[in-house]
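FAQ

Q: What does a record look like?
A: Structure on top, sequence underneath. For example:
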């Protein structure tokens, strides 16, 4: 027979946090409420929320095991009791309301998830459950409480949800118009032309201009984001989809600008280019023209079918208007300056011209070399520029209430001017060299800041006024806010390296990393191959949604099982791979039992269908080809898969 000491040891050294508590005082208080005529505790607690806090204070901690003390970062029961208010904060107080209702109904068990806090303030996701022990059903004097630390599981869940929500959120809420489209019918058209022997698409389209319209009408718009609806004045996606003929006009005119743009887009795709960029004019549903810059990119994996294409439309109407304004007469330009829809600065660079003249008199003929030796001269030059005027769009762009406020805070707009290697210093240096060489225009991209400290990606265009070529005393600078475009470009780059379903790296990125590491100094390098077991069965019996869920769960386990510097990728439908730089065979072998533990935890949480992975790992020493290492890992994975099949 097990002794009392035996059970005490089981309690004390259990691998999960355990506490023994006394709820008898709570029982007495609840009975007192019944005696007062309270029949509906739920409504009573709504009217008397202080009752929850009062009942919590009645819990007596009889004992806590070592795991419980360690979880909360305390050394003893007394230290635990002295800091109990730090461990169980507002969220757990809300959970305690449910516990009171459970006790009120006469139930002897309760379980729920919440957040506790360690002594050092670190949050701990927990699964808390308790049971009134046999023999205490009438008194509640002995209650066994277990607290499981589920922080890693919750972090993995949140990371996966954030990844999925982030991808959808990036598309839906991107500040630039995004279109997801299906060009597969165009690819089919291309294939049929090639079978007919057509080699020159441009010549073919000149003879068959209607084919351009037919191609563009065959494009299926799969989705658009909210910025697209705002750009074209649509109240819903359905309204936009049914009125695309209003957005893309003139498609029946062979020599129209839109037809020329579509023709060039088709020729670009025919030639195998996976990106395309052009400017044109679209129209809102209300008939207003919009100048747009179109960016097209074929999704990774759709290169052969063109079934998924991302199109971004940047509204460049303001920029086009500003460019036309610069070409107008000076009188008209003066009238447009103040209310132009783009940031305009009128500046005096004559002090820079004087500096150039002094350098030439001193025999300097290479300004770049001079500035490398005297970097402070760059700052001195730029600080010598006199800003003569700015327009209202400039004030709005930089968050200034007046021109005076902006002029006195230019150091906040142009940061890092004291750092010789900063991006702004390089931009200024190139601007000076451009002017030194006699160029009267200059264009560059960089980062400025609002007076509130927010970064703005800008495209700077500089033009010396006619008549000021010798003095540089009148220079017009326009700043275009391209922050939205930069974000769209970052989004496109992300899609090029990540698997959309799981958020892991995709096969293309994985292959690039293999090439990079193959010639690097990161040996030993280990590679793990993982193949998802039972995916076909899940798809066939439970549907593809269940199969997709298994794929995401596999990604969740793999992401949790490796370091940040490891490359975790989905390289096929049910196949994953991990590159572990600077990891020897012994450390790499530990990954398999670690993943198997995570799989068991994952299955415990999700249940059916069961997640299973066949795993294989191999390590490459210095100068060993990583493709060979990958093949060995793949062979090891298939050996495990055969064992799984034999085991049933």
């Amino acid at each position: 027979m097990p002794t009392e000491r035996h059970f005490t040891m089981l309690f004390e050294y259990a691998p999960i946090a355990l506490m023994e508590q006394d709820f008898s005082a709570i029982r007495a208080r609840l009975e007192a409420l019944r005696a007062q005529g309270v029949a509906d505790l739920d409504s009573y607690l709504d009217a008397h929320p202080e009752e929850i806090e009062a009942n919590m204070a009645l819990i007596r901690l009889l004992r806590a095991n070592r795991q419980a003390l360690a979880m909360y970062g305390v050394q003893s029961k007394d230290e635990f009791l002295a800091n109990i208010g730090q461990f169980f904060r507002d969220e757990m107080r809300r959970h305690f309301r449910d516990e009171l209702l459970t006790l009120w109904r006469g139930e002897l068990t309760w379980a729920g998830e919440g957040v506790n806090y360690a002594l050092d303030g670190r949050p701990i996701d927990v699964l808390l459950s308790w049971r009134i022990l046999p023999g205490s059903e009438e008194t509640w004097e002995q209650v066994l409480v277990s607290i499981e630390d589920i922080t890693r599981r919750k972090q993995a869940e949140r990371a996966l949800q954030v990844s999925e929500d982030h991808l959808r959120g990036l598309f839906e809420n991107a500040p630039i118009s995004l279109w997801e489209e299906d060009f597969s019918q165009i690819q089919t058209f291309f294939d049929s032309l090639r079978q007919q022997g057509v080699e020159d698409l441009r010549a073919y389209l000149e003879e068959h201009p209607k084919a351009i319209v037919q191609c563009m009408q065959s494009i299926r718009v799969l989705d658009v984001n909210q910025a697209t609806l705002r750009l074209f004045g649509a109240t819903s996606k359905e309204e936009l989809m049914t009125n695309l003929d209003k957005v893309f006009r003139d498609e029946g005119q062979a020599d129209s600008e839109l037809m020329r743009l579509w023709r060039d887009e088709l020729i670009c795709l025919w030639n195998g280019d996976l990106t395309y960029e052009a400017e044109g004019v679209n129209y809102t549903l209300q008939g207003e023209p919009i100048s747009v810059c179109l960016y097209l990119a074929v999704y990774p994996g759709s290169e052969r079918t063109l079934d998924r294409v991302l199109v971004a439309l940047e509204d460049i109407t303001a920029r086009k208007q500003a460019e036309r304004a610069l070409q107008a007469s000076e009188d008209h330009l003066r009238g447009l300056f103040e209310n132009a829809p783009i940031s305009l600065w009128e500046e005096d660079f004559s002090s820079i011209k004087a500096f150039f003249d002094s350098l030439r008199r001193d025999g300097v003929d290479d300004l770049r070399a001079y500035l490398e030796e005297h970097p402070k001269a760059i700052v001195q030059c730029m600080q010598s520029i006199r800003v003569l005027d700015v327009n209202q769009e400039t004030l709005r762009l930089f968050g200034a209430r007046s021109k005076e406020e902006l002029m006195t805070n230019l150091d906040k707009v142009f940061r890092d001017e004291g750092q010789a290697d900063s991006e702004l210093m390089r931009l200024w240096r190139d601007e000076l060299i451009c002017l030194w060489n006699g160029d009267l225009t200059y264009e560059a991209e960089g980062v400025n800041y609002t007076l509130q400290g927010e970064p703005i990606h800008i495209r700077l265009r500089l033009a010396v006024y006619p008549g000021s070529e010798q003095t540089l005393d009148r220079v017009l600078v326009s700043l275009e806010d391209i922050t939205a475009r930069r974000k769209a470009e970052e989004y496109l780059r992300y899609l090029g390296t990540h698997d959309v379903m799981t958020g892991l790296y995709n096969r293309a990125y994985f292959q690039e990393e293999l090439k990079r590491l193959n010639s690097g100094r990161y040996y030993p390098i280990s590679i793990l191959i993982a193949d998802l077991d039972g995916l076909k069965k899940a798809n066939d019996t439970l549907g593809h949604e269940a199969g997709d869920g298994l794929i995401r769960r596999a990604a969740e386990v793999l992401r949790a099982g490796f370091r940040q510097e490891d490359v975790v990728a989905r390289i096929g439908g049910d196949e994953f791979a991990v590159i572990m730089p600077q990891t020897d065979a012994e450390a790499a072998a530990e990954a398999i039992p670690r993943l198997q533990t995570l799989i068991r935890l994952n299955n415990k949480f999700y249940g059916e269908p069961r997640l299973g992975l066949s795993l294989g790992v191999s390590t490459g020493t210095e100068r060993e080809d990583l493709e060979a290492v990958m093949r060995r890992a793949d062979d090891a994975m298939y050996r495990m898969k055969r064992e799984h099949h034999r085991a049933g």
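Q: Is there anything notable about this one?
A: The longest strand covers residues 123-132.
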